[in-house]
Amino acid sequence: MSEKDISFRDRPINMDAKGSRKWVYAKKPKGEWYTRRTIFSWFVLLFFIGAPFIKINGNPFILLDIASRKFIIFGAIFWAQDTFILALLMLSFVLFILLFTVTFGRLWCGWACPQTIFLEMVFRKIEHLIEGDYKKRYKLDHGPWTSEKIIKKVIKHAIFIFISMAMTNTFLLWFIGPEKWFNLISQPIHENLSGFIIMLLVSAFFYWVYSFFREQICTMVCPYGRMQSVLLDSKSIVVSYDYKSGEPRGAKNSGDCIDCGQCISVCPTGIDIKNGTQLECINCAACVDQCNSVMKSIGKKPGLIRFDSENGIKNGHKPIWNVRNRSYSVVLLILFSFFIYTLISRPVIETTILRTPGLLFQENADNTISNVYNIKIVNKTHEKIPLQIRLISQKGEIKMAGNKMEILDQSMFESTFILFIPKKQVKSDKTEVEFGIYSNNELIETYKTTFVGP
């Protein structure tokens, strides 16, 4: 092979030998797989835009309120105290991605990744609409600055900026919710200048990524493309070139591949799939559609490029399931089942009672000793809960700051109280005490802490 033939092994396809950027001018794809991907992408976009507005019994479907350390995922509330449960959920998601990659390769990247969906299904479509297909865009970019070029570039980038700002605000909805967002945008800019500047900076980043950096996110930045090289094996289903049917290439040779280069022209990352699986391939199936159309036009059977495994190409059809992905599936099932059990069995409230820092015990005239405590109770349900606190380990009296303990749905109750215990019951300088948290005279949680005495 010449240096040109094997250069894809040494560097990303969108970079030349000197390390300079090579722009990819991909041909507009069309075909059955592209239609399926477009339909799926619209569902993902609708979910991304609409999820913050979905309510379940008046409560958010998804809310990632980092400032309040409260997360609502599919209607279930998670607080900072639920870090373990969230960790189980994240581990389940990561393991699912690993299992999916082992079985189907980098299908996530081409079909569900927000970067690909916004680039290919939003920004690229606008670019095709304004500037035309790949040949026209190449000619426009490399031609002189005529009035036509200026008008098209200004319109395109103005729309790109608008969409980038819309993306930022949609992204913000996931973290503050629609109510706070509407309140935020209704206020004058000078009242929230720092937030407005952050919004502009994030929008500028999105604009730069989708206008200039583009596919380099997938080929040079995203670690998932590198990770797939250690996850894929000969049984993984990926976009593959059938070298057994295609070789030797050329119109005058006996192979099905006529070496027309159409699969390269339509690839959004600019690779040649005939070189085999490469980290730049996002399994978008654009080359599958393009090759199938060429095969039909020359009277040959479609499927020269298709979703298949190395074993499938070499030995014929083989089952998708094997020992490795079965093992991943079992571990995923166990982990996710443990997550569901932990989620269902967790208490409806989470209580923390700690002695107030910096305060010692107090000896009182009525022959009691008192300690001051801070109490924090988190409501993990969508219901308002009336509460009472009682000392259940010893005899004593609790005086709460405020007369009513009531915690609203998805809220946190914080207060201070004084615990009085008869001096004769305090046997050491640190005595363990246990509190009971009741709702309608039903014990729902207990909490142990220390009581300091003389």
Can you walk through the features of this model?
By secondary structure, this protein is α+β, with helices and mostly antiparallel strands. The chain folds into three domains: 15-229, no CATH class; 236-315, no CATH class; 349-452, Sandwich (Immunoglobulin-like). Helices cover 44% and strands 20% of the residues. The protein has helices at residues 3-6, 32-50, 83-104, 107-111, 114-131, 134-142, 147-186, 193-213, 216-221, 224-231, 243-246, 262-265, 286-297, 310-315, 323-345, and strands spanning 55-56, 59-60, 62-65, 70-73, 76-79, 238-241, 305-308, 349-355, 362-363, 368-379, 385-386, 388-391, 397-400, 406-407, 412-422, 430-439, 442-452. Strands 8, 9, 10, 13 and 15 form a five-stranded antiparallel sheet that branches. A three-stranded antiparallel sheet has the order 3-4-5. It is elongated, with a radius of gyration of 31 Å. The N and C termini lie far apart (87 Å).
Write the layout of secondary structure elements.
Layout: H1 3-6, H2 32-50, E1 55-56, E2 59-60, E3 62-65, E4 70-73, E5 76-79, H3 83-104, H4 107-111, H5 114-131, H6 134-142, H7 147-186, H8 193-213, H9 216-221, H10 224-231, E6 238-241, H11 243-246, H12 262-265, H13 286-297, E7 305-308, H14 310-315, H15 323-345, E8 349-355, E9 362-363, E10 368-379, E11 385-386, E12 388-391, E13 397-400, E14 406-407, E15 412-422, E16 430-439, E17 442-452
Helix pairs in contact: 2-5, 3-15, 5-7, 7-8
